[in-house]
Write a structure and sequence with these properties.
Structural class: alpha+beta
Distance between the termini: 10 Å
Oligomer: single chain
Strand content: over 45%
Length: 107
């Protein structure tokens, strides 16, 4: 199912509640199709579609970025939220963090 609008709302809420400035510059969706996962040892496997969204953007600092990630985790939409990279950036008088986050969810 198309989750684009719901995902944008979740990202917007997480950014707004992060108590810092967070800007998403790039968002990529990916899916690995159906995987078969066994719930218990020896049990029949069940098909699970794992998909993810990769976010690249900037924040005004470590604290805002950490709170944004925590808000994504607390949304209970994602199975896993992982900070892939965080680099210090500075343009003239402005500085902050450039980041990449991967959010995985299961259907």
């Amino acid at each position: 199912p198309d989750r684009s609008l719901a995902l944008l709302a979740i990202l917007g809420d997480a950014a707004k509640l992060s108590e810092g400035k967070v800007q998403i510059e790039r968002m990529n969706f990916s899916s690995n199709g159906n995987r078969h996962v066994a719930q218990k040892k020896g049990a029949a496997s069940t098909p699970v579609s794992m998909s993810s969204v990769s976010l690249q953007g900037i924040s005004d600092g470590d604290k805002g970025l950490a709170r944004f990630i925590e808000r994504l985790r607390c949304s209970n939409v994602f199975h896993q939220v992982e900070l892939k990279s965080s680099l210090l950036y500075q343009v003239e008088e402005m500085h902050g963090r450039q980041f990449q986050i991967e959010c995985k969810f299961a259907e």
